[in-house]
Amino acid sequence: MTKLKADYILTMDKNYTILKNGEIIFDEKIVEIGKNLKECEREIYLGENSVVMPALINSHIHLEFSSNKTHLEYGDFINWLHSVIENREELFISCKGECFKKAIEEMKKSGVCAFGEISSTGNDLRYLKHSPLKVVYFNEIIGTTPAAVDMLYQDFLARVEESLKLQNDKFKVGISIHSPYSVHPILMEKAINIAKTKNLPLQAHFMESKAERRWLDKGEGEFKLFFEKHFKNAKPLIKPIEFIEKFKDTKTTFVHCVYANDKELQKIKEINASIIHCPVSNRLLNVGLLDLERVKNYTIDYLVATDGLSSNYSLNLFKEIRAALLMHVNLHPKYLAIDLLKSVTTNAAKALDLNNGSLEEGKDADIISFKLPGKVKNLDLLPLQIILHTNEVQKLFINGKET
Ligand code: BEZ
Ligand code: FE2
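A: This is the predicted complex of the input protein with fe (ii) ion.
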């Protein structure tokens, strides 16, 4: 049993309790949290201006692209997509053991205890078997060519089976449907059915760009040229609202949603899905900024994630939420800061089906600690100060073990 004592404990519980001079006792699970608790064999005071809070969850990344630094084209979504297709093989080949390790290390340093990995090949599986962080491994299905449907489905099934063999308390399996424009409806249906039968969480990119909006609504625009060039088929295969409906009765998170309209947001709410917001990626691909106020008005939970190094310069999740804080200029920083911390703790845990994200009795002891550069007199401002001043954590516990 370990007891941590900190100047500030941010529990992220339902009442959003902050403890000044607080204590937390845990083994693999959290046992007790409060003040002046019973004595423990191992007690650590974390020092002046120390903060303890739930470890963070990066719900959406593509580790396969971790070798990208300067290869891909930024500034325009479709040009970026062309560059991904052109460089995909080379980037995949150049990301092996060290590259995966470095990417995970960067997340770990920023206080991430768990991440949602989108894998389109299964190449990363043997490295993730030994990941120090918890993994939710989303096997991704992608492909629109009718003649390839059977082959793609067999490959997908084999990847799902392989990943299911690794399931344990630190490794969970999920399914990713790449997007409404890039997956044949037959494949969608089959993959979603597997998720339903095996009760696996789902993710899907949705309405990331204006080009996607135009293509799915009208079959026009930049995506028409894109499909003519790469796939020789030039008809959208599904209406966006039908796409969302396919995820009814599942646990789904839609990624980006920058161009989702009111009907679609309403539908996302109706099926109890959530939204992943990747502000840096959206900025670099120049697709615009998700309207968080609108998402909140639909009472949809949102999560913030880094996306992969294919559309980011860093996997540091504190940097990502700081970027969000600075980009959403129409929202009050004090309140936005609280929502952003929720987006990488409680909301992410709920969407990925993890038993962490808040410091409460019985939750997994996934905990971080770090120090602020000074005292915070007004506790209402603690979340904002945390986001402004934290890049790396001092300690990270996963299932109670210091990692
Ligand atoms: C496909 O494999 O069919 C595809 C991939 C990316 C974008 C669109 C389609
Ligand atoms: Fe993504």
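Residues 74 and 284 are 6 Å apart (CA to CA). The chain has 15 helices and 16 strands.
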